């Protein structure tokens, strides 16, 4: 129903708004005093409400980083929990300012939806989880299996592509709500569950007995996940893009939540530029103040800290950095320099 | 008054802009222009804004390859087009709607009659049924069947076997599928022929009773004709029907017919939920027939069953049919709750078309057009039926 309302909202905004090139998301956000951020309805580690209804997670921290950069206060965010099918209409209609909901950067989304991706916060790939009792060790053994998948995601397409390529028959069960997909899989309605591998790790934790389920080793697709904004507002796009870069740059420069105040005294000019020390003011070029990046790190830490806090080996998800390590540390995460 | 005063010079009433006909036409034209203009303004704004934001629009996507798989009644795969996928979703919607309408009608009729039963137990059970189901939202009823009943069935590897070839598990009901042999059309011809003969017998019996008052068990004779003729031809053609049996494989039971839990929960939920409303409609219809009719029929010596069938129900139908049409429309529209359980209906398929194409306005337009079309067809059919059973005054 909500979906329908959102769709009507788009029709209304697109229909009513006389055709002025819309911009000024940053001004709107500053005026209303918070960032309206679209997040997952409940994916542990990425976007998940805790017992008190407060959202936490890796994607949520990106929303908070944007708020910290603009307001110096990471709590100035309001969250809109969104399903796979609800997320794009919500962004198109302007219901949210920013979508950080483990959303894969694909060409069609980047070019035909009126969106633009502001970076990659997590390099992922589609994988499979199966009931351990089935004795399945590889995806190719799943011939003839029933596979649960969440509707309105590109996982549905990845699944169809892979099984077609391998010439394997399967029965898809496509369900809209992530919680319902998990429940159907867990009840044995499906033999396997497919989604992004980070999501599998999160979903597995939600099972009654996580040890009864194994994640198969194969990765069948490229799933670069990242924050998304509308493509009609370059300034707002720059803000979100450079918040992403700042998180990565901070880790590269060795600036952490703990040492950020000490780093203000650093002689390293790259660090000084980052923290807006002296007459450095890179925030001005994106409509923010000189301390924008300082505020991000002060509030949330750098990319590595955000990762470790939400997804890393010490969390229940226990995801190693892998390809998401810095480029000089065996990974492919790379922050564009603030220069 | 009607004759114009010859000596009168032109009065204000004679001016063309004061002419009532001209005025009413002008008002209507202005109204039409305003409505069409507003719609055009909306449409133009939408198209312009979509273009400026670089959001794809138009219905070209319907012809493109969908690239995803869903389990539908029609044979679809990832090579099917978006348009065909949506069509498959429509077919799934129609199938579950028709079957739910059928079961809701039968169940509603039975419960509605039972509500008026003189037997306390039957009456109370029917009342409890109605009060229970009509006071629960349909979504909850669907989830009750899906999670409360069907999901609690055993795992497919421990499926409950009923006979050698039927089995019941949380993946659905598996049963043999009849495969028609090359000579099966002969059996169908025989069946149709036997129906025609049975109908002729019935007509003859009716005419004879009208003429002589003598009864004839045309129902039983007709049934006998159908069974003997069709059965005889079936045996004579020699094995025109075989069965494809469900076979257990490593993960699933394949082959045969499968009723999925998603379909079953939606069908049962919409059936039992709407039956509670139909029961009340049936009850009100029966109560609208005056008690004197029943008494008069009894006085003529008709048995209770015949009183109901020949006197009460035909009159009650006139009260029942119009609200019944609304219930049928409700069932059809409530099938969209399928998304809750993952039955690939029109909305569920549309959601998956919406994601890769991002064309929400177009997909919503397709949804609205399809539901509107279905609803209009149901309304027309029910109006036709209503007109047919309307009281013919003599």
Give the helix/strand layout.
The complex is a heterodimer of chains A (339) and B (394).
Chain A: H1 2-16, H2 25-32, E1 35-40, E2 48-49, E3 55-56, H3 58-71, E4 77-82, H4 87-92, E5 98-99, H5 107-112, E6 115-117, E7 122-124, E8 126-131, E9 146-150, H6 154-165, E10 171-175, H7 178-186, E11 192-196, H8 197-206, E12 213-215, E13 223-225, E14 228-230, H9 234-253, H10 260-263, H11 269-275, H12 292-300, H13 303-310
Parallel strand pairs in A: 1-4, 1-5, 9-10, 9-11
Antiparallel strand pairs in A: 2-3, 6-14, 7-13, 8-11, 8-12
Helix pairs in contact in A: 3-9, 3-12
Chain B: H1 20-52, H2 82-114, H3 120-134, H4 138-149, E1 160-162, E2 166-169, E3 172-175, E4 177-180, H5 184-212, H6 218-237, E5 241-244, E6 247-248, E7 253-254, E8 257-259, H7 261-288, H8 291-299, H9 304-334, H10 346-357, H11 360-389
Antiparallel strand pairs in B: 1-2, 2-3, 3-8, 4-5, 6-7
Helix pairs in contact in B: 2-7, 2-10, 3-7, 4-7, 5-6, 7-9, 8-9, 9-11, 10-11
Percent strand of chain A: 15-25%
Radius of gyration of chain B: 29 Å
N-C termini distance of chain A: 47 Å
Mean pLDDT of chain A: 90
Indicate the CATH architecture of the domain at 82-157 and 259-389 in chain B: Orthogonal Bundle
Approximately what portion of the residues of chain B adopt beta-strand conformation? 5-15%
- Number of domain units of chain A: 2
Strand line-up of the largest beta sheet of chain A: 10-9-11-8-12
CATH class categorisation of the largest domain in chain A: Alpha Beta
| Straight-line N-to-C gap of chain B | 41 Å
């Amino acid at each position: 129903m909500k979906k329908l309302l959102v769709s009507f909202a788009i029709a209304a905004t697109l229909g009513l708004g006389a055709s002025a090139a819309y911009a000024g998301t940053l001004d709107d956000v500053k005026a209303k005093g918070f960032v309206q951020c679209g997040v997952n309805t409940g994916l542990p580690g990425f976007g998940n409400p805790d017992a008190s209804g407060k959202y936490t997670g890796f994607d949520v921290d990106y929303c908070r980083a944007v708020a910290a950069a603009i307001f110096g206060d990471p709590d100035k965010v309001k969250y809109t929990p969104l399903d796979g099918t609800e997320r794009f209409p919500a962004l198109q209609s302007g219901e949210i300012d920013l979508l950080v909901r483990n959303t894969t950067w694909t060409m069609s989304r980047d070019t035909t939806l009126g969106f633009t991706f502001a970076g990659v916060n997590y390099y992922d790939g589609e994988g499979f989880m199966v009931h351990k009792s089935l004795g399945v060790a590889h995806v190719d053994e799943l011939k003839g299996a029933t596979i649960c998948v969440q509707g309105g995601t590109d996982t549905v397409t990845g699944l169809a592509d892979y099984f077609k390529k391998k010439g394997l028959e399967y029965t898809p069960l496509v369900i809209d709500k992530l919680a319902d997909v998990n429940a159907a899989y867990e009840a044995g309605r499906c033999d396997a569950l497919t989604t992004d591998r980070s999501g599998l790790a999160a979903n597995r934790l939600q099972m009654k007995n996580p040890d009864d389920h194994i994640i198969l080793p194969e990765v069948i697709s490229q799933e670069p996940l990242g924050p998304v904004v509308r493509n009609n507002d370059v300034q707002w796009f720059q803000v979100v893009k450079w918040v992403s870069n700042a998180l990565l740059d901070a880790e590269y420069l060795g600036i952490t939540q703990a040492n950020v105040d000490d780093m203000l005294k650093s002689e390293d000019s790259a660090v000084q530029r980052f923290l807006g020390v002296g007459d450095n003011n890179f925030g001005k070029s994106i409509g923010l103040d000189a301390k924008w990046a300082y505020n991000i790190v002060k509030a949330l830490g750098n990319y590595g800290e955000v990762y470790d806090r939400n997804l890393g080996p010490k969390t229940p998800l226990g995801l190693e950095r892998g390809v998401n390590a810095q480029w000089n540390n065996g990974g492919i995460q790379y922050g564009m320099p603030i220069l | 008054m009607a004759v114009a005063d010859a000596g009168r010079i032109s009065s204000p009433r004679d001016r063309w802009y004061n002419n009532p006909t001209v005025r009413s036409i002008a008002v209507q034209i202005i109204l039409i222009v305003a409505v069409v203009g507003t719609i055009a303004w909306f449409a133009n704004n939408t198209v312009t804004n979509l273009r400026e934001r670089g959001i794809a629009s138009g219905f070209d996507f319907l012809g493109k390859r969908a690239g995803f798989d869903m389990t539908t009644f029609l044979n679809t795969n990832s090579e099917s087009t978006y348009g065909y996928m949506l069509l498959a979703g429509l077919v799934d919607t129609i199938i579950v709607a028709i079957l739910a309408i059928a079961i809701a009608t039968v169940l509603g009729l039975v419960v509605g009659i039972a509500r008026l039963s003189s037997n306390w137990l039957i009456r109370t059970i029917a009342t409890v049924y109605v009060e229970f189901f009509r006071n629960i939202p349909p979504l909850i009823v669907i989830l009750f069947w899906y999670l409360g009943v069907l999901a609690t069935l055993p795992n497919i590897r421990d499926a409950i076997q009923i006979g050698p070839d039927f089995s019941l598990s949380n993946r659905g009901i598996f049963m043999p599928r009849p495969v028609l042999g090359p000579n099966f059309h002969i059996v169908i011809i025989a069946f149709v022929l036997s129906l025609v003969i049975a109908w002729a017998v019935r007509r003859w019996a009716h005419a004879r009773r009208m003429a002589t008052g003598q009864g004839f068990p045309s129902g039983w004779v007709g049934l006998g004709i159908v069974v003997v003729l069709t059965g005889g031809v079936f045996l004579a053609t020699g094995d025109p029907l075989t069965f494809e049996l469900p076979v257990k494989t490593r993960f699933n039971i394949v082959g045969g017919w499968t009723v999925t839990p998603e379909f079953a929960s939606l069908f049962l939920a919409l059936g039992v939920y709407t039956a509670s409303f139909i029961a009340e409609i049936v009850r009100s219809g029966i109560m609208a027939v005056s008690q004197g009719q029943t008494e008069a029929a009894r006085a003529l010596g008709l048995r209770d069953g015949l009183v109901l069938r020949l006197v009460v129900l035909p009159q009650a139908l006139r009260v029942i049919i119009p609200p019944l049409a609304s219930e049928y429309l409700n069932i059809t529209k409530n099938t969209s709750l399928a998304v809750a359980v993952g039955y690939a209906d029109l909305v569920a398929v549309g959601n998956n078309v919406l994601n890769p194409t991002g064309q929400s306005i177009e997909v919503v337009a397709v949804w609205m057009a399809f539901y509107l079309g279905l609803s209009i067809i149901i309304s027309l059919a029910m109006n036709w039926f209503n007109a047919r059973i309307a009281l013919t005054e003599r």
